[in-house]
Amino acid sequence: MDSPPPPDPVARQPEQYWAIGPLVQVNVKTCLLDDDLTAWVTLDLEPFEPHEITVAMEEEEEESPGYILMDGRLHAATAPPWKALSGPRITTPSQPEPQFCEASTEAWKRRVSFDYLSCGCHPEYDKDYWYHDIPLVCITRQLGQAIAERIWNNLPIAGMRFSARI
Description:
2 helices
């Protein structure tokens, strides 16, 4: 009986999108304006390295590449989508102000959970002290959690679809 041939050393290995596995912190900032949701996502690939705490979110947005969520898809970008909105705006009483929210998901803190959250948040990333009664906060967390799951499964996030229930 013949033995199977040895594996081909040049055989194509699955592409490794995330070299450090789930040791990623996903930072999400969302903007809701007239039921239109956009988001700015940055990945901290060195979450345990010392960072300058005094760096403002605005400065960080200018320096770091990230992803924007527009029309339900993530796209690689170099600036948040609302950078164009900065500066003086003429508003009227009938025109709503944009709502912003920020949340971070630490991919390595995923845990087994048998809970069910009616808001749609991923129970494996839930913390005991989180409230789930503000929809924009939950949507922001859900986006970070969906990205963390893709990182766990070694899938790319560029082009990823995300639909939120607003």
